[in-house]
Design brief:
The protein is of the alpha+beta class. It has one domain: Jelly Rolls. It is about 15% helix and about 30% strand. It is globular.
């Protein structure tokens, strides 16, 4: 019985208002909502420094080994808008990609050794084996959701910065 009385007292106490009473006719006070700061990015990321406009930040998975490069984003059903996968090659070369078993349409951003965008393959059609490439040698290829490059106005010549992405030579 004591437990029931104690539990009832706790429920009653928790229901009481903790705010001070408001006088009739007094203006209502509004409280500004707390400013919410987005969480800081953690882990590997790419920042594209566009030729005009604010930088674009992308959280990435880093792929360096031949076996994981071959698999890439195959079989993925979705990817957050600000996420992608960066392929790191051992040396600059003419890179050719395909969309075999890749369900998502992708933009493929080819990046030179000097970390400028060489070119972009936009909206690559899913589940096709057509070669996707741009003329020239690249050391990195960044895959993002199809249409990302247009939505964020990315273009050849934009500079790229890396955070927590080991150099290609390691």
């Amino acid at each position: 019985m004591r437990w029931i009385v104690l539990a009832g007292s706790l429920v009653f106490a928790s229901c009481r208002s903790s705010s001070a009473p408001v006088e009739p006719g007094a203006p209502a006070r509004s409280v500004a909502p707390a400013r919410v700061t987005p969480p800081a990015r953690t882990g590997p990321s790419v920042r594209v420094l566009r030729q005009s406009g604010a930088p674009v930040d992308i959280s990435v998975e880093v792929v360096r080994e031949p076996r994981t490069r071959e698999r890439g984003l195959m079989f993925r059903r979705d990817m957050d808008e600000d996420h992608g996968m960066i392929f790191v090659f051992p040396r600059p070369d003419h890179q050719v990609f395909w969309m075999h078993n890749t369900i998502l349409p992708l933009d493929m951003i080819f990046i030179r050794a000097d970390r400028t965008i060489l070119g972009i393959v936009k909206n690559a059609t899913p589940e096709t084996d057509d070669p996707r490439e741009v003329p020239g040698d690249s050391l990195y290829v960044l895959e993002v959701n199809g249409g990302f490059s247009d939505r964020h106005h990315l273009s050849a010549g934009d500079r790229v910065e890396f955070t927590d992405i080991p150099p290609a030579s390691e």
